[in-house]
Specification:
single chain, 1173 residues, alpha/beta, 6-stranded antiparallel sheet, 6-stranded mixed sheet, 10% strand, extended
Length: 1173
């Protein structure tokens, strides 16, 4: 398997169709930065299924499509095709050439194709599974990925090793099994909850059934009393209803009279309010001018205050500076005297320090003499103690040996008796197990025959299902396409309908008349009665543009009625065509050569044909531009709307995007509705076909007998496990019997050996006890001399420490005095500097005080002028304000009188409302009685109106009886009338769910066994591959570095093969062994490359793409890198993106990527093999 070619079209910077042909050997891709080299690598990643948009160096999928340049328009799709030569059948398909295509359209749609047949992303992943080709495999290596291998980002080393080991499929199976296990456990938890809940419900349902029986008995009695109560209540309703109606009519008449008076007074009041509003506006204008004056006055006051505060601050500053200078002169003399005193103290203390140093030297000599004596005594004591301890250890070892030997002899005797009993039991068990094994093997053979028959039937049914599903997929594709067409038409219909409903593009006067019912508002607009074929709409609309907003009315009276409405409501103007004026219209015109009449492409109803002739009888559409040269006074149109030629005029230019969209909207809407109906029929027909096929698939699924197969397989697995367990048990018992015989013989021999060995040790123990007592007396004498020497040494040490502490304290005291002296000298220097600085500030402050006094005087004079102007304006404003409030009080008095009348009207309204409420209450009582009888007792009120009462019981007594029975029913609480039936159903459901729970427990055990088997197989393959790669890595590392350099691969957690990471330890010549992350940049890259090549030796990928991997390497290492690639190119294709000249020299074919046109990448191929020949 090898790469044959790559075809790119519209992907990123490759606007044109670009084909890259890959031969055997090494192919190089070169070019300057930003020219699009890496876009070739991105296209290969994308076509083999890359889903992470960040890995393609883009923000979103739309960015993958060529976005246009200054000279080119944007592409509508991105398409990449990758062709493989499959002569060795590495890909699981019968085709010798395999082409994978991926497309993405600007509208968001995308598709995958395999040999030009539509497929899914999952099919692409399955095609490349365990071939070494995938988005995260070692087939595509970028510089960033080498970094990932170095840092082991997201366990990248392990992922590559898994690719080489081919265990991805096992991990997938394990993941699927774990997902199923999680779902099974969730189902089990849900079923446990269900069983608990149902069990609780079963206990209560029985009590509910008894309660329901009692409830129905009381309910029957309540029904009879309620019907009798209804008959008694109906007798008094009619009289009350008549009285309320008469009272309502009287109050309504009073209300009408008051409403008339209120309307007259409100009109007069509104007229007076107009004058009031004008005076209010004049007052607001005066108030605004006065506010501006006040604002200016406040500003000047602030300026004055600021000047006053600044002057006060400067004077205070001047006073403070003078006080500081007076105090500073005295402080300079005080600090100078203090410095002289401190210098005398330092001299005295240094003399004392010299005396203390001599005392320390003498104490040190004395302690050294005492220390030598003490060390000699301690050496003698230590030697004697060691000898004593050695004798103690020997004595302990001898005692321990004797005790262990006695215990061992007792244990051997007990084990001998136990083994004899076990041998007898094993003989009996073997006889029983051999009989049971024969029976289970016969059952297993029978079950396997049954399973073979079931599986043959299932395979036949599955083939039928696949055929039906294939047909179903075709129908679904057709349905998706037809649905897309239907949605497009519906969207177009909804958009056009919204434009028509909102009258988009029409003036306000037209919209007003369309909604106003005070004239013939159903009259059409000219643009709605004309339908033009789509290709001529823009042209005809250009001619009729001045008239499209005209209403088409029947006569002059309708037009005048609309005009009066527009004038009354101040809604602008409108134009009208009067149909009755066109009854006698006759068209006369001569058709220019090379044209056809505009009326031929227009459709109108019969009643509007004369109007259409009036507008278009002299309008013709040109078949070509030559027709405009001789128009004979007619209006000639270009069919796309590019120009309009009149008798003396010519209009034209570019055609706008929305031209032709206004004319014939209503007619277009009707035609779209018809198209939608036809399209819905097609969609419904496809849906019925899909449902029919779906039913076929369901029928076939019912015939699969998967339940029987699974049950039989489970029984076979159980029998197999039982047979295997029985055989293992028999073998284990036989092996245990042989082992026990050997152990009995061994125990006999060991008993004799133990007795012989321990006799010598007992004699040695007696001699050791005697030696121990003699050595203890000698140790006691030597330790007394040692203690006296130790006491003398401790006394000398205490004297030395005390003298040394006194010396150290004197040193610290001298240091403190010197620091104090330095601080005082610095303090004196800083004080002198402050005196100089403050003297300068004092001079500056005096100048600022003079300037501030002048500024303050100017601000006070300006403020006085503004305050005088404010008093004059304030008087004028008060006079206008008084006049405004007098007028407002008069209006308020009139409004109060009007409110009194309105309040009287509201009281009447309230009284009428109360009467209506009483009438409604009567009706509601009657309706409530009717509804209650109907809902509670299924009795209609009309059926009992004419029935006589069954008793003479008074209404009040019936109400009391009814209420007592109702309370009895309410006190019973909620009653479940279907409790008995519900109890039976609930019991059946409980038994069914319990059976489901047992099935899930069996499924869980089966899944756990599957996960263990898959994990064991995957771990074994991973370990074998790791060992091979490790051996190859050590060899390749030496080839890339030197024979003296070494490296190794180590499992981080060997006990956890399923998830362990992989560490790389390297030892270049002359360096210590270190992890790969501690190497230099070039060493890291070479080490990562060595790992890649080591994996290639195990399972070479069909091709390898290296994107600027050689960038961190120096010339010497690049040479080693290219030599290794040449060696591996015999078995794999290599595609290298590089800037390195040495790497370029190693390739067979070079593709240069350029951008001769800004934003557009081009390829220039060079085949070095043809040049060398």
């Amino acid at each position: 398997m090898r790469l044959k070619s790559l075809e790119i079209k519209g992907f990123k910077s490759f606007a044109d169709k670009t084909v890259v042909t890959f031969d055997e050997g090494i192919t190089g891709i070169i070019g300057p930065n930003g020219c699009g080299k890496s876009n070739i690598i991105d296209s290969i990643r994308w076509v083999i299924g890359e889903q992470k948009i960040s890995a393609l160096r883009s923000e979103n999928l739309d960015a993958l499509v060529f976005n246009g340049s200054k000279t080119r328009s944007a592409s509508g799709l991105a398409e990449v095709s990758l062709t493989f030569e499959n002569t060795k059948n590495l890909l699981p398909t019968e085709f010798s050439t395999v082409t994978v295509t991926r497309r993405f359209y600007k509208n968001g749609e995308s598709e995958y194709r395999l040999n030009d047949v539509s497929c899914r992303l999952k099919d692409i992943h399955n095609l490349f599974l365990d071939t070494g080709v995938s988005t995260d495999s070692y087939a595509i290596i970028e510089l960033g990925m080498v970094d990932d291998i170095i840092k082991d980002k997201e366990n990248s080393r392990r992922r590559m090793l898994e690719q080489a080991a081919g265990i991805t499929i096992y991990k997938t199976r394990k993941k699927e099994a774990k997902n199923k296990l999680d779902l099974t456990e969730q189902d089990l938890a849900r079923i446990e909850d269900l069983l608990f809940e149902i069990n609780n419900q079963l206990k209560t349902l029985e009590n509910q059934a008894k309660k329901a029986e009692k409830y129905f008995e009381i309910k029957g009695e309540f029904r009879e009393v309620s019907i009798e109560l209804a008959k008694a209540a109906l007798e008094g309703f009619n009289i009350t209803y008549k009285e309320l109606n008469e009272q309502q009519d009287l109050e309504v008449n009073k209300r009408v009279q008051l409403e008339a008076e209120i309307a007259v007074e409100e009109a007069a009041l509104e007229q007076e309010k107009v004058g009031f509003i004008e005076k209010e506006r004049a007052l607001q204008s005066m108030q605004g001018a006065f506010n501006d004056l006040l604002q200016n006055l406040r500003g000047k006051e602030n300026d004055k205050n600021l000047a006053t505060q600044k002057l006060h601050y400067l004077k205070e500053k001047e006073t403070n500076l003078k006080e500081f200078l007076d105090k500073a002169t005295g402080q300079v003399k005080t600090i100078g005297d203090s410095i002289e005193y401190t210098q005398i103290q330092v001299g005295d203390e240094e003399a004392k320090l010299a005396e203390l140093q001599d005392a320390v030297e003498n104490a040190k000599l004395d302690i050294e003499n005492k220390r030598r004596n003490f060390d000699e005594r301690r050496s003698g004591v230590d030697a004697l103690r060691n000898e004593f301890q050695q004798i103690q250890r020997n004595q302990f070892d001898a005692e321990k040996k004797v005790a262990v030997a006695d215990t061992s002899i007792q244990n051997l005797q007990r084990a001998q008796a136990q083994l004899t009993d076990e041998q007898t039991q094993r003989t009996q068990q073997l006889t029983q197990l051999q009989g049971a094994l024969v029976e289970k093997e016969e059952s297993l053979v029978n079950k396997r025959n049954v399973l073979a028959d079931l599986q043959a039937h299932q395979e036949k049914t599955k083939s039928s299902i696949f055929e039906t599903q294939a047909a179903l997929e075709v129908l679904r594709s057709e349905l998706a396409e037809e649905n897309r067409k239907l949605d497009a038409k519906r969207n177009e219909y909804n958009l056009l309908k919204s434009l028509i409903d909102s009258m988009e593009g029409y003036p306000e006067s037209i919209k007003f008349l369309h909604k106003n019912p005070d004239w013939n508002h159903s009259a059409p607009i000219l643009s709605d009665i004309i339908y033009v074929k789509e290709e001529y709409r823009a042209a005809v609309e250009n001619v009729l543009e001045p008239y499209l907003n005209y209403y088409v009315v029947n006569n002059l009276q309708e037009g005048l009625q609309a005009i009066h409405l527009l004038d009354t409501n101040q809604k602008g103007k409108a134009n009208f065509f009067m149909l009755d004026k066109f009854a006698d219209f006759r068209s006369e015109s001569s058709q220019p050569a090379g044209t056809f009449a505009a009326l031929d492409v227009v459709e109108v109803d019969e009643q509007y044909k004369k109007l259409a002739q009036y507008l278009l009888s002299n309008v013709y559409i040109a078949e070509n531009e030559d027709a405009i040269n001789n128009s004979n006074g007619a209006i000639v149109l270009e069919k796309t709307g590019k120009f309009v030629k009149g008798k003396y005029t010519l209009t034209g230019g570019s055609v706008g995007l929305f031209e032709g969209k206004k004319i014939g909207r209503a007619k277009n809407l009707e035609k779209l509705a018809e198209d939608i109906t036809d399209q819905e029929s097609v969609v419904n027909l496809l849906k019925s076909d899909i449902q029919f096929k779906h039913n076929e698939v369901i029928a076939f699924n019912d015939q699969l007998k998967e339940g029987s197969i699974k049950q039989t397989e489970a029984e076979i697995n159980q029998l197999t496990n039982e047979v295997f367990a029985a055989k293992n048990r028999i073998e284990n018992l036989q092996a245990a019997s042989l082992t026990a015989s050997d152990r009995l013989a061994d125990i006999e021999a060991r008993l004799g050996d133990e007795h012989d060995a321990i006799s010598e040790t007992r004699g040695a123990l007696i001699q050791l006890n005697q030696d121990l007592n003699a050595t203890a007396a000698q140790v006691s004498l030597v330790e007394q001399d040692y203690q006296l020497a130790e006491q003398a040494y401790n006394e000398a040490s205490a004297t030395y420490n005390e003298t040394n502490i006194t010396f150290t304290r004197q040193q610290s005291k001298i240091t403190t005095l010197k620091q104090e002296l330095l601080f005082k000298e610095n303090q004196l220097s800083e004080l002198i500097a402050q005196i100089d600085n403050n003297t300068a500030q004092l001079s500056e402050a005096s100048t600022d005080i003079s300037e501030g006094a002048a500024t303050l005087a100017l601000s006070e004079s300006l403020l006085l002028e503004l305050m005088q102007q404010k008093e004059v304006e304030e008087q004028k404003l008060n006079e206008a304000d008084q006049a405004y409030y007098n007028l407002r009080n008069a209006l308020q008095e009139k409004e109060s009188e009007l409110r009194l009348k309105s309040k009287s009207k509201e009281m009447i309204d309230h009284l009428v409302t109360e009467i209506k409420d009483k009438l409604n209450n009567l009706k509601l009582q009657l309706a409530g009685m009717k509804e209650r009888l109907s809902v509670e007792f299924k009795v209609e009120l009309d059926d009992i109106l004419d029935q006589p009462r069954t008793s003479e019981t008074p209404l009040e007594e019936l109400q009391n009886t009814s209420e007592r029975m109702r309370k009895r029913l309410e006190n019973m609480g909620e009653v479940n009338p279907t409790a008995i039936e519900a109890y039976t159903e609930m019991r059946k459901r409980y038994d069914f769910i319990l059976e489901q729970k047992n099935d899930l427990v069996s499924a869980k055990e089966s899944l756990l066994q599957t996960i263990q088997e898959v994990e064991a197989t995957a771990n074994q393959q991973f370990l074998e591959t790791f060992n091979k790669v490790r051996e190859n890595f050590q060899k390749v590392f030496k080839a890339l570095f030197t024979e003296e350099d070494t490296a190794d691969m180590v499992l981080v957690d060997p006990t956890n093969l399923a998830d362990t990471g992989i560490d790389i330890v390297a030892k270049p010549k002359g360096k210590r062994p270190s992890s790969i992350t501690q190497l230099s940049g070039g060493e890291k890259t070479l080490t990562a490359t060595a790992l890649l090549f080591a994996i290639y030796l195990i399972k070479p990928a069909p091709f390898c793409i290296l994107d600027e991997v050689d960038a961190p390497l120096d010339d010497a290492n690049v040479g080693k890198f290219t030599q290794m690639i040449k060696k591996f190119s015999d078995n794999s294709q290599f595609i290298i993106v590089t800037h390195n000249k040495q790497t370029m020299g190693a390739v067979d074919v070079i593709y240069g990527v350029t951008m001769q046109e800004p934003g557009v990448s081009k390829l220039v191929p060079v085949d070095f093999r043809s040049l060398t020949n």
